[in-house]
């Protein structure tokens, strides 16, 4: 059982200090056994993706679970003898592709390059203008008929849990405790709502209407946006990227190109 003594100086009531600790924690998990730079560089268009056996992009993934996916993240990925750099394509442990990308910048791919884009718990980490810009870029690189699937903490679930005391917040607290990031969180309901806004680098928390808002601002048509269930969607291979660990708090949305 974790306790406060195992985390000296830890104060859950100090978001600024914990942001520094989280950055260090994230860097510690961004590791792999082997990184090999690809001689041909990043794929530039649909043909380039297909030549590598790639059909889509998973954002915020050091090692995508999709065998035809390009994993990307802002944080550098490290092996014992190498560290990724932006603008380079890497083979990770011999069976996955990765490149380091900043979603606040234009994507380095041509229009209509991929069939799908996936991002689990990413959009809440950037401001709304950055989110809209990234979604606009995601739409641009999708081929006609392609699908974007995003998941994010559901503001409505938190507020219902707070208002009704239905056990969600307590369950969520226990789930976060299994991550190993710090001692047990306080049990105060207000704290457990505030942490979704204040911790983990979160910038904006969404409900379904707010997701529809940013997606339509990015150019997706309103009637092509849909609320989905866990691991249910237009493409089973993409929906299967949803992780069970986060189902208690997550909203799932897709938009077609």
Model description:
It contains 8 helices and 11 strands. The termini are far apart. The strands form 2 sheets. A 9-stranded mixed beta sheet has the order 1-6-7-3-2-8-9-11-10. Strands 4-5 form a two-stranded antiparallel ribbon. The chain is 31% helix and 21% strand. It has helices at residues 15-29, 46-51, 128-141, 155-164, 168-177, 189-198, 208-217, 236-239, and strands spanning 35-37, 56-59, 69-73, 78-79, 82-83, 89-92, 96-100, 114-120, 142-153, 225-228, 250-256.
- Rg, please? 19 Å
> How many E strands?
11
| Unreliable stretches covering 5 or more consecutive residues | none
Q: Which H/E pattern describes the elements? A: HEHEEEEEEEHEHHHHEHE
Query: Which sheet architecture does the biggest sheet show?
Result: 9 strands, mixed
The share of residues in extended strands comes to 15-25%
Q: Average pLDDT value?
A: 94
Q: Order the strands across the largest sheet as they lie in space.
A: 1-6-7-3-2-8-9-11-10
What global shape is seen? globular
Helix content: 25-40%
Overall structural class, as computed from helix and strand content, comes to alpha/beta
- Please report the number of helical segments: 8
Q: How far from one another are the termini? A: 48 Å
């Amino acid at each position: 059982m974790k306790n406060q003594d195992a985390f000296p100086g830890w104060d859950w009531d100090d978001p600024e200090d914990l942001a520094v600790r989280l950055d260090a924690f994230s860097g510690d998990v961004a590791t792999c056994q082997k990184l090999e730079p690809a001689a041909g560089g990043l794929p530039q268009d649909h043909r380039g993706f297909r030549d590598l056996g790639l059909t889509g992009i998973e954002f915020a993934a050091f090692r995508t679970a999709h065998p035809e996916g390009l994993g990307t993240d802002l944080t550098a990925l490290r092996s014992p003898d190498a560290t990724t750099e932006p603008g380079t394509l890497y083979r990770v442990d011999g069976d996955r592709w990765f490149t380091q990308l900043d979603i606040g910048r234009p994507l380095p791919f041509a229009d209509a390059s991929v069939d799908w884009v996936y991002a689990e718990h990413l959009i809440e980490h950037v401001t709304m203008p950055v989110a809209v810009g990234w979604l606009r870029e995601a739409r641009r690189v999708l081929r006609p008929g392609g699908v974007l699937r995003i998941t994010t903490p559901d503001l409505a679930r938190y507020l219902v849990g707070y208002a009704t005391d239905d056990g969600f917040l307590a369950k969520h607290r226990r789930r976060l405790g299994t991550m190993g990031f710090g001692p047990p969180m306080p049990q105060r309901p207000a704290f457990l709502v505030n942490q979704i806004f204040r911790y983990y680098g979160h910038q904006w928390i969404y409900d379904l209407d707010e997701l529809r808002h940013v997606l339509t601002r990015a150019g997706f048509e309103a009637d092509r946006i849909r609320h989905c269930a866990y691991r249910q969607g237009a493409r089973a291979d993409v929906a299967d990227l949803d992780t069970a660990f986060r189902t208690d708090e997550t909203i799932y949305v897709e938009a077609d190109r």
